[in-house]
Amino acid sequence: MARQILVDLTPLRVSPKFARLWVGNAIGGIGAQMTIVAVGLQIFDMTGDTFMVGLVGGVALVPMIIAGLWGGMLVDAFDRKAVLMTSAITGWVSVLGLVALSFHDQALIDAGDRAEVWPFYVLTTINSVAATISGTARSAIVPRLLPPELVPRASALNGMAFGTMLTVGPALAGVIAGTIGLPWAFLVDAILFSAAFMGIVVLPKLRPIDTVSRPGWTSLVEGLRFLRFAPNIRTSFIVDIIAMSFGRPYALLPAVGAVVIGGAEITVGLLTAAGAIGTLLASLLSGYVKSVRMHGVAIRCAIMVYGGFVGMFGAVILVTQWLGATSTSSTLTGVNWIAFALAAVAMAGMGASDDVSAIFRSSMMLVATPDSMRGRMQGVFTVVVTGGPRVGDMYVGILAAWLGLWSPMLLGGILIVGLVAVIARNGSSISRYDVDHPLP
């Protein structure tokens, strides 16, 4: 019964190289999630403006799109281990830069001087670009380390690792920021980041199996042409863009913690961790994955459930403000616990449903795509899963400033459910996708 319900660990036993890559990425990812939260808190502390927090994603969006497409071509054309190592080193250096900048700015603030925000945008953009290429390479490596039937189970394990990152990283960032200061959160990320190299060093050389065009216009056109005739993969990208563009609450959390629920940085960390706990639980209870054949139907249902929880989060903010039950306390003693509990449930539901969607979307893309195209398709996939949230951060910042903190999530949830129901209707190709006959 436990083997049927709980996450399947077979990929870790079958491939020690995959196991080391998985462990190293999980540890390094905890620090990466700390930095994402810490950057938002730092900029909100410096500006008091949710739009400026959302602008972090907007500034990085175009470079990340370019990096995803270019990185995918690099992954297909060169040794995947070398591409992963180079991008990981670049990301680590950018984190060290954030450490130095945060300590420097804290010293300026303590001295009564003004600190500039733009260097944070520069360094986080470099970090995002490096993470985009690293994610592209790491995912494209998985089918070279495991047989096809284990790829969906590996996707579930990656979801569990991601849930751990999102559970531990943001909560730790909130606690560290609220106790000893934001610069120390960046420093812990720099230390944990080094663990990612453990999994990369032990990988074998992973050169292209087939002849592939060198990175450039021809290679990009080949990838886009393949995507044109891959309706299942293309639709999975579209529905995920919809979910991430209209259902990302994270840029709202500093303001929600400051003026709606109370608790400031600690509330931000706990609500972010609630979403991660949902992700973690969904992956831990993913034993069913090996029995699911209709991956497209699973994707559609999971994203529509996600939209429902997004709307719930917006409704909690709206009702709390309408009842006049908001709190501006910076300590846990002044938190509106009813609003916090409901918001935490919504965050956990978002995390769980998004994880289910990600497991099947990732499996579909990796199994149905030929190896010579996996880098480029993973590049597009990485642009979607990282670029979509940046668009979402901009959407949240603009709509929250225009209509109020409640509006991005409440309206976004309605849009997600409606659009996905239309796009992935029963007659669509993705609804007929069968893992036993994986057609792109």
Question: What does the model show?
Answer:
The structure is a single chain. The protein has one domain: Up-down Bundle (Growth Hormone, Chain: A). The longest helix is centred in the N-terminal third of the chain and has 32 residues. The radius of gyration is 21 Å and the shape is globular. The mean pLDDT is 80. The chain has 17 helices and no strands.
Structural class: mainly alpha
Tell me the strand percentage band: under 5%
The CATH topology is given as Growth Hormone, Chain: A
Rg value: 21 Å
**Structural domains: how many:** 1
| CATH C-level | Mainly Alpha
GO cellular component, one term: plasma membrane
Membrane topology: Multi-pass membrane protein
Keywords: Cell membrane, Membrane, Transmembrane, Transmembrane helix, Transport
GO molecular function, one term: transmembrane transporter activity
Summary keywords:
440 residues, mainly alpha, Growth Hormone, Chain: A, 17 helices, 77% helix, transmembrane helix, Putative major facilitator superfamily (MFS) transporter, MFS
Walk me through the topology.
Blueprint: H1 2-5, H2 10-14, H3 16-47, H4 50-77, H5 80-110, H6 118-145, H7 151-179, H8 182-193, H9 196-201, H10 217-228, H11 231-246, H12 253-259, H13 264-284, H14 295-322, H15 337-368, H16 371-402, H17 407-423
Helix pairs in contact: 3-4, 3-6, 3-7, 3-8, 4-6, 4-16, 5-6, 5-8, 6-16, 7-8, 7-13, 7-15, 11-14, 11-15, 11-16, 11-17, 12-13, 13-15, 14-15, 14-17
Main location: membrane
Protein name: Putative major facilitator superfamily (MFS) transporter
Membrane topology: Multi-pass membrane protein
